[in-house]
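Blackboard transcription, Thursday session:
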Amino acid sequence: MKATLAPSSLISLPRHKVSSLRSPSLLIQSQRPSSALMTTMKTASRGSVAVTAAATSSVEALREGIAEFYNETSGLWEEIWGDHMHHGFYDPDSSVQLSDSGHREAQIRMIEESLRFAGVTEEEKKIKRVVDVGCGIGGSSRYIASKFGAECVGITLSPVQAKRANDLAAAQSLSHKVSFQVADALEQPFEDGMFDLVWSMESGEHMPDKAKFVKELVRVAAPGGRIIIVTWCHRNLSQGEEALQPWEQNLLDRICKTFYLPAWCSTSDYVNLLQSLSLQDIKCADWSENVAPFWPAVIRTALTWKGLVSLLRSGMKSIKGALTMPLMIEGYKKGD
Amino acid sequence: MRLIVHNMLTCNIKGVVNKFPLRIEAEKVIKKEVDFNPDFLRHMLAKIEWKALVDGARSMGYTELPDQLESEESYSFLKKFHHALLELHLEEGSLVCQETGRKFPVEKGVPNMLLHEDEV
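(Written on the board underneath:)
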């Protein structure tokens, strides 16, 4: 797929964004200002109007699709990649020839870099209660609970994941600190202001309604608490641009169908949402370069004998997912 | 599901005022030993909704907890608190909203708090 345009302001697609936010005032720090941000509220509301236009029955269908996808593929992922279901964090331009354990370390580094970016490591004593929104099989929860001695609850749409996450917690003697439930990130079953740290590691992509997603994250965050979102975004739109280019949209659509990613927005959209909810110290960064080595590594593991056999055993959704992986690489490459 | 988690879960159906606590209907309860950690327990005492814990424990067949939170945190009290909070597992059953009667199933120890379309 060749780009027909290569304007110098085209940054990259998709972008991997980290946002760190505290309640309540309005200091915005952008680590890497994009050229020509759309800062009007119109952009943010456009994003949310586009996604809430989906009929509610299709929202339920999406929820079921996500649950089934992870019910079916979590076991395979864990077998090959372990209990973290997110990108690794690498030094840019690092050699891609890392060992399996090198990649697992990179996944842990992703957690550490995110905490550090948000300034959380310096405030360890304040982190008592954590919610892991879109917790997978609980890798982040168990890691954070161990690190801070904090109580952590995780929520996922997949009953298989929740059960596995609980079993792993028990095996690691963390049952008293971490537990996992089936719940919807858009309707969290918790009181307002419950959590010192609200953690969303690569789950935002699955949310059909970004505005609602962010609102819930803010609702359950304690005053003075911290929200950390690591998510896939598309590039910020330039001045005068109303939407992504057709070829970009086409690429995204193909990735989305396989991984049940209902809608994408930009970092600016997230920042605008957070600002509208009066959050303080909003920071964001683009980590596209730091995660790009991940997908070639995943593909390589899939192409090993063990990987192929496991894929064939685990069913159509996993195979479709594996076939879509080259598209992820394409997405990252288009940026340059 | 242990009571430490039950103590945090609310009914998130739109418009419901009496969201917490959820009443427990236990079908299968199992006991799993957890290491006794008095410091952790003392820390938890400050955060736990006591009545919800007592009622929840009763629903799961454990009646040893005092109705009122004791001011002296004796060893024997902490052991009972430890047992109720961390060692009782609801494997199968329901969490019931006190206001609407809606039942959230608990299967294989995992509560399912997903709402239906008309509850949102």
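Lecturer's comment: Chain A touches chain B through 29 residues (CB under 8 Å).
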